[in-house]
Design goal:
The strands form 3 sheets. A 7-stranded mixed sheet has the order 5-2-1-6-7-11-10, with helices on both faces. A two-stranded antiparallel ribbon has the order 3-4. The protein has 406 residues and is α/β, with parallel strands linked by helices. The protein has 2 domains: 127 residues, no CATH class; 242 residues, Vaccinia Virus protein VP39 (Rossmann fold). It is built from 14 helices and 11 strands. It binds S-adenosylmethionine. The site of S-adenosylmethionine has 21 residues, from strand 2. InterPro entries: MeTrfase_CN4_CS, SAM-dependent_MTases_sf.
């Protein structure tokens, strides 16, 4: 039997450092420290809005500071995950949960010979070897037997969060780059190792829920271009990090989690969801983009100039990329326009966004956001560099800030 290194990152001590923020390695979440600083700037009774929730970093930071926040995401998996991450838990219910987890492990052998459900992930053998995969399927079946499929129940959701973490940690997914890649090898796990890892992860996850959350955060499913899910509510501070115009697909990154939790069943659903997402370019989203045309909304001149340059680059994808950038800023402009009706007079907005480059043409996201905001009547519009992004010298992350005076 191959030995699995003792993973200090599964221990309670490690997780305590990260708390709930460290539950899953998902899309590049933004810096907890940065969000904490922005949250601390705001008055305690301010209502916070996060229109691109992702892994619910903003919601969690706000509730940790005793504040009330609402968040939105287009992706149902992230809405489910964000709500578990920000939930309040009772200690006696958590004790019961740990007993139920023991049951899941005890009954696991009885599922080993069964014909268990497996997710329809393309090239699944790249993720898990033919020995480990059936073990994960059996563990999943045992969790379903005890808890049912993923639901809104916050306690059984913890079991599913732990399963997600186990599934990704036993896979060959590599997180050393901005977007997920694969390690050379897939590791073989034995049933006892799987049981032990699952138990350790549950302990670490449960332990981090004991931190007392002082505020309240809710994550809703919705489209931030229209924001109609939140109709009628008003906010004082928007703290967020929307997608960047860099062709990173959140669905691509979240595939394993979404298939295993059945938030995604077929490949074509991935493309459909990505088309709804701002900056989505996965599967059918790409072919739909080829047909897309703006509908006459007046957009910043600097955007039109850079799109024109991209269009004339020497590449067979030049037209597609020009449309991609155009649509990204068109969608963000629609978002800024809809947002106005949800802001109290004096509200502040903080958007963390990166610039990007297409065929050597720099797309200055922060400047284009600034122009959109000014044209939509926002005041005190400005931006500052937050950090350098990677080895490319021209890529940075910015914080674009503005006020809404009503
Ligand atoms: C950069 S991520 C947010 C990361 C987040 N700040 C965190 O710390 O995890 C952008 C998020 O916007 C979501 N999104 C994209 N288009 C959207 C839309 N039209 N409405 C709502 N959410 C959207 C994506 O699903 C993704 O989760």
């Amino acid at each position: 039997m191959l030995s699995v290194k003792q993973r200090s990152d599964y221990t309670f001590r490690f997780n305590k450092k990260m708390g709930r923020h460290g539950w899953l390695r998902l899309t590049p979440a933004y810096s907890v420290k940065l969000v904490q600083e922005l949250v601390e700037e705001t008055l305690k009774d301010a209502r916070i809005l996060e229109p691109f929730s992702g892994t619910a970093t903003t919601g969690l930071c706000a509730t940790e500071s005793g504040m009330i926040s609402d968040s939105l995401d287009i992706n149902p998996f992230l809405v489910w995950f964000g709500n578990v991450k920000c939930a309040h838990f009772e200690e006696n219910e958590l004790k019961k949960l740990e007993q139920r987890i023991e049951k899941v492990n005890e009954q696991l052998p009885s599922f080993l010979e069964a014909d268990n459900w497996a997710p329809k992930i393309h090239n699944i053998e790249r993720w898990w070897c033919g020995h480990t995969l059936p073990l994960l399927c059996a563990l999943r079946a045992s969790i379903v037997e005890e808890f049912g499929e993923p639901s809104d129940d916050q306690y059984s959701s913890l079991a599913w969060v732990a399963f997600c973490r186990l599934m990704i940690e036993t896979s060959s997914a590599d997180f050393n780059h901005v977007s997920m890649s694969f390690k050379e090898d897939v590791t073989r796990y034995e049933v006892n190792q799987i049981k032990l890892l699952f138990k350790d992860i549950v302990e670490a996850v449960v332990d981090s829920t004991k931190e007392n959350l002082l505020g309240n955060a809710e994550i809703f499913l919705g489209d931030s271009r229209t924001l109609d899910t939140l109709n009628g509510k008003k906010y004082d501070h928007v703290i967020t990090s929307p997608p960047y115009p860099n062709r990173m697909s959140y669905i691509r990154e979240l595939r394993p989690y979404m298939y295993w939790t059945k938030f995604l069943n077929e490949k074509k659903e991935a493309g459909e969801l990505d088309w709804k997402a701002i900056g989505g370019t996965w599967g059918t989203a790409t072919s739909k983009l080829k047909e897309w045309a703006p509908d006459g909304v007046e957009l910043p001149e600097s955007l039109l100039v850079v799109c024109e340059k991209i269009l004339h680059a020497e590449s067979k994808n030049a037209d597609l990329m020009a449309r991609y950038v155009h649509k990204y800023f068109y969608d963000m402009h629609s978002h800024f326009a809809s947002l106005r009706s949800l802001l109290n007079a004096g509200a502040k907005i903080d958007y963390i966004v990166g610039n990007s480059s297409f065929y050597g043409n720099l797309v200055n996201s922060e400047k284009i956001f600034e122009s959109s905001l000014v044209s939509l009547g926002y005041k005190n519009v400005s931006s500052r560099i937050v950090r350098k992004r990677n080895s490319k010298k021209e890529l940075f992350e910015f914080c674009v800030t503005a006020k809404w005076n009503g």
